[in-house]
Amino acid sequence: MPVHRERVDPIRDQEALGLVHRRWLLPDDVQRPVSLQQAARLWRALLELSVIDSRQEALVQRLRPRGGALEELEMPAGASAGALLAGSGAANLVTQVVWTDDEDRRDPYAFQGESDPAGFRDYTLYAVEAASWLLLPIPPVARICGACSLRGALDLPRFGEAVLLDLSLKCSCGAAFDLGRDKAELRNGAVFLLEELACRAALSIELPRAPPSEELPDAAVAQAVQEAFGGTDELADDAVPPAE
Q: What is residue 55's DSSP assignment?
């Protein structure tokens, strides 16, 4: 069942948006631990750098294993970093939408002081602290088992704009997930090793269209991400529906 994600201020007109670009920043090693404290420090850094708006609310969502109900809490953005620390044993996200023309708003993709593209930025920080789950930012449609090469369809539960992979699932041959051998097939037919798509923490940035730069031009924001995640990879998901 897809997770319904309500937006907080400012509200965007979904029909007017059309398709968008979503950029994912994630650790370049799925085995590297990213604690809730590290995630909270990153969100706090985005507040201090004026990337997100401390005057507006942020939405915190939390999902616990074994069929727990989705927890949702809207709160002042300044308090939302602390709320992440209460997410032990769960999948957590915190999200806020801002606009590049807001006074004193910092755009990590601005070049020489100009936002390209101008418009909204939807920032969502994910932190999965449940040992049995991994986050897959770009939902795959199938798994290709590394043990038997069988292709099996995947229908994974959504969390925000990502999906959660339950590591207890097995192939029909009995093999458990092997991140270094199993492959994931995306909706466009591309195939990747599962470890290239999986993570326990990620920052997604949604924009009206793809920015000119493949990397963050803003050195201070890039440094904050590196301090939280270590080395990073970027995944681009283009021409996708906007976050609900």
A: T
Q: Where are the domains of the chain?
A: 20-131+199-240, 135-196
Distance CA 65, CA 213 (A): 37
Rg, C-alpha atoms of the chain = 18
- Quick one: which of 128, 46, 65 has its CA closest to 93? 128
Q: Are 136 and 165 in contact (CB under 8 A)?
A: yes
Under 8 Å between Cβ of 86 and 92:
no
pLDDT in tens, 82-111: 999 999 999 999 999 999 999 889 999 998
Prediction pTM value: 0.91
Contact 206, 26 (CB under 8 A): no
- Residue ranges with strand state E in the chain: 20-27, 57-63, 71-76, 91-99, 120-128, 133-136, 142-144, 151-153, 158-159, 162-166, 183-185, 191-193, 201-207, 232-240
| Residue 227 backbone dihedrals phi, psi, to 5 degrees | -65, -30
Distance CA 35, CA 106 (A): 26
